[in-house]
UniProtKB/TrEMBL annotation:
InterPro entries: Chloro_Bact_Ser_Proteases, PDZ, PDZ_sf, Peptidase_S1_PA, Peptidase_S1C. Residues 1-44 are annotated as: Disordered. Residues 300-368 form the PDZ domain. The chain crosses the membrane at residues 46-67. This is PDZ domain-containing protein. It comes from Nocardia macrotermitis. Keywords: Hydrolase, Membrane, Protease, Transmembrane, Transmembrane helix. Residues 1-10 have a biased composition (Polar residues). GO terms for biological process: proteolysis. GO terms for molecular function: serine-type endopeptidase activity. The keyword Protease applies. Coiled coil: none annotated. Residues 16-32 have a biased composition (Low complexity). Pfam families: PDZ_2, Trypsin_2. The lineage of its organism: Bacteria, Bacillati, Actinomycetota, Actinomycetes, Mycobacteriales.
Length: 409
């Protein structure tokens, strides 16, 4: 791979990825159903999360960088042969291109493309992952796999494609571990120490930019440490904060989510997660510049090891996701307002209707759409829960239902 110097930042509009989507879909990661998903998908549509970055007094618009590729039942992409080669992207700082090229080539065989089918949304998604173990445990972002009804992963080191399942996820820190079926002998990525990262360090972000299936490299430098961003889902009325992030000046693009941010030695120092919209999105040869954000690898590995060890917590969910079968938004006076119901799901079976407001699950108060999502993360398919809600006529109701198995997250 060759990395070429940049000609400077060119602010521009988001490319052909469509409307914004948010960081937290309503309960279980499922979009509102009172309008067609392809018109305004809140989480896994063709677009970016609208977020605000608070860096001192500066606020910029950024977005999660998992590419959401189609809103129809079939993919618009043709299968591509995989190879460890990389299509170059611009360098966003004056760094040694030879060193960055060598660093990128060290890592590319230790990354994977993550492709998802989003069955409830009639869509598909694409992101990236980092190989943690030779038998196929992969680190990626939660938002790459959230809402997935099917996951396939292509290892760039051997060009093989594997079915995959989610071991567990941490929604609050936007991380997940995926396990490949039948994998062995995979090349793992070399991991660095994110505590040693300093402002001005040269970096490269690697990933499946645009969901093309061909790995790309975005080179630049570290511009900030310990950054916090607040991501909001305008259509669902939910938001989240990610903290402690590495900020970089690099052309991170949709599809790069879950991919490695590496240093000049070819060591992974972060997990690419978000990027500003104030730069040009396009193909690998386009000139662009912007601000990317990555989760430090030390933090990511701590969470990954907890997931690999099967240790659930208030933020870590292990195993399959429980499914209530509603889409919700924040209710005006607290609670989760039911916007629509999934046919034949638990919510429909117990008689919930659009306009009802969920106020508690068992003895846990639900005061927002996000709190319902967090509460559901503490449950698994087959659990029986008592749902308390105020119906659309203002009457308090209570009913028991058994949770089903749903899409990831």
């Amino acid at each position: 791979m060759t990395v070429y110097p940049n000609q400077g930042s060119r602010p521009g509009q988001p490319g052909p990825y469509g409307a914004p989507y948010g960081p937290h879909a309503p309960q279980g990661g499922h979009p509102p159903y009172n309008h067609p998903p392809q018109q305004r998908p809140p989480r896994h549509g063709l677009g970016f999360t609208v977020v605000t970055v608070v860096v001192l007094a500066l606020a910029v618009t950024i977005g999660m960088v998992a590419a959401r590729l189609t809103t129809t039942g079939t993919s618009a992409r043709s299968p591509l042969a995989q190879s460890p080669g990389i299509v170059s992207q611009p360098v966003d700082s004056q760094t040694s291109t030879a060193d960055l090229t060598a660093a990128a080539n060290k890592v590319v065989s230790g990354i994977v493309n993550v492709d998802t089918e989003l069955g409830l949304q009639n869509g598909e998604g694409a992101g990236t992952g980092i190989v943690l173990t030779s038998d196929g445990e992969i680190l990626t972002n939660n938002h790459v796999v959230e809402g997935a009804t099917k996951i396939t992963v292509t290892a760039l080191g051997n060009s093989r494609t594997y079915p995959a399942t989610v071991v567990g996820y941490d929604r609050s820190d936007d991380l997940a571990v995926v396990r490949l079926t039948g994998a062995s002998g995979l090349q793992t990525a070399t991991l660095g120490n994110s505590d040693r990262v300093a402002i001005g360090d040269a970096i490269v972000g690697l990933g499946n930019a645009g969901g093309t299936g061909t790995p790309t490299a975005a080179a630049g430098q570290v511009t900030g440490l310990d950054r916090s961003i607040t991501a909001s889902d305008e259509s669902a009325g939910a938001s989240e904060q990610l903290t402690g992030l590495i900020q970089v000046a690099a052309n991170i693009q949709p599809g790069d989510s879950g991919g490695p941010l590496i240093n000049s030695a070819g060591q992974v120092i972060g997990v690419d997660t978000a990027a500003s919209q104030s730069f040009r999105f396009g193909n690998a040869s386009s000139q662009g510049g912007g601000q990317g954000f990555a989760i430090p690898i030390n933090k990511a590995l701590t969470i990954a090891k907890q997931i690999q060890g099967g240790k659930s917590s208030s933020t870590v969910h292990i195993g399959k996701s429980a499914f209530l079968g509603v889409s919700v938004s924040d209710a005006t006076n607290g609670g989760a307002l039911v916007r629509n119901i999934v046919t034949d799901g638990p919510a429909e079976q117990l008689g919930l209707s659009p306009g009802d407001v969920i106020t508690a699950v068992d003895n846990t108060t639900v005061d927002s759409a996000l709190s319902l999502t967090d509460t559901m993360d503490q449950h698994h398919p087959g659990d029986t829960v008592t749902l308390k809600f105020t119906d659309r006529f203002g009457q308090s109701q209570s009913a028991r239902t058994q949770l089903a198995q749903g899409p990831v997250g």
